[in-house]
Amino acid sequence: MAVVTFTSASVLVAGTDISDHVKEVTVDDGREENDDTTVNMTAKSMTGGLPTPSVTLKMRQDYAASKTHALIRAAVNVSTAVVVRPVAATIRSATNPDFQFTGKVLQYSPIAGQAGQFQEPTVKFEPTGTPLSELTTAT
Prior knowledge:
Layout: E1 10-13, E2 16-17, E3 22-35, E4 46-59, H1 68-74, E5 80-85, E6 98-105, E7 122-127, E8 133-135
Antiparallel strand pairs: 1-2, 1-5, 3-4, 4-7, 5-6, 6-7, 6-8
């Protein structure tokens, strides 16, 4: 199995590339947890329910026009397209898929940091009713 070193990812929010401001990105393709245990079982049983996708970004804050603050502020409680690709310079493929998601930001701290340090707010794009898409064919 190949091991991947995360070096040059691509992150687009509302069609704008903010990769140069993103320090960490997490794409979560989770499911609601449903208890499907019955009385004839000897241990608890769980099954996945509705998808609960999300994309979480830790980014360096930038208040310039069309940069992180403007993009994230515009995504507060508004459906917004987010696309993450593991290797930006490599064409989309089975080994370098695009993860596409429409989410909205429900909590945003435009100022997050300490004296002498970069402002690095963490922003989570929550689900809006559409599942995460993994695209593997070239465009």
